[in-house]
Amino acid sequence: MDEHLSLKLDKVIHQKARLGIMSILSVKEEAEFNYLKTQMKLTDGNLSTHLSHLENSHYIRIKKIFVRKKPKTVCRLTEKGRKAFMEYIKNLEQIIGSVPQV
Q1: Backbone angles phi, psi at 60, to 5 degrees
Q2: Model-level pTM?
Q3: Which residues, at least 6 apart from 39, have a Cβ–Cβ distance to it below 8 Å?
């Protein structure tokens, strides 16, 4: 018997905050920490934890820069992250397509 389609979903991405971060980064070239925090309604610590998880999986790259002597944290998808996100979307579409129309 084949495994259920839901078992193919990437466990790193399949979490509400990380899914949101990945979807934002898939349409923006890069996003600042504060932008992600506001969009996802997360605390600094919570967002940092999710970003670290994505970075450890090599799905995003985090760059710290200074703008007018103020630190900024900028995030962007890696090629591996973009491929993983597109695969995740494809698997979700298959799940949705397998549900009978009512």
Answers
A1: -135, 160
A2: 0.90
A3: 20, 24
Q: How many Cα atoms within 13 Å fall on the side-chain side of residue 64?
A: 4
* Token reading at 30: 């890069």
Assign domain 5-94 to a CATH class: mainly alpha
Task: Count CB neighbours of 2 within 10 A.
Answer: 5
Q: Any idea where the domains of the chain sit in the sequence?
A: 5-94
Helices 16-27/33-40 angle, 10° precision: 130
pLDDT cut 90: percent of the chain above it: 80
**22-59 residue pLDDT tens:** 999 999 999 999 999 999 999 999 999 999 999 999 99
**CA atoms of 30 and 67, how far apart (whole Å):** 16
* Contact (Cβ atoms closer than 8 angstroms) between residue 22 and residue 59: yes
